[in-house]
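Researcher: Structure for this, please.
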Amino acid sequence: MKVKEVVKTILMYIVMIGAVIALRHYVFTPVEAIGDSMKPTLNDGERMFGLKHTDIERFDIVTFPAPDDPGRDYVKRVIGLPGDTVAYKNDQLYINGKKYDEPYLDEYKANLTDGQPLTNDFDLQHLFGYEKVPAGQLFVLGDNRRISKDGRIIGMINQKDILTNVKFVFWPINRIGTVE
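Model: Predicted structure, token format:
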């Protein structure tokens, strides 16, 4: 009888380990914010769970391979979806001509003391020579717009290159919770 219980326990652990490995491979993966480009939303060294194979919506935070730094991944916020026009005027985001609020930037904007905007004026036409985000592409920005190496510098991101959609911070403990 004791051998039967040991075998059942071992099988239970094997199934649990297999389930965790499958979830890690197909559903979610841990990611780390490196640098300050996503402050104040994400801080350097924070660890998050990113979901794989999810639909990407405007303002989601995603990870993708850095196009200019092989072996490294970037964490950025999706601003422009395929077919969108994107522009910034007077520190205000406009998508398809419509004004959008970005409450995740309020903390940074409130702390600016130099009279300069958090995000300098731009539009896709002046950055890339075309008006709209191309089919199959995304335009991304870091939340710390003054220092972020994002879509304004690295260009559009292929939707197929998105690794994860960041949803939950798990480290440090005092920051546990969903990502806004």
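Researcher: Any notable elements?
Model: The mean pLDDT is 89. Residues 2-26 form the longest helix (25 residues).
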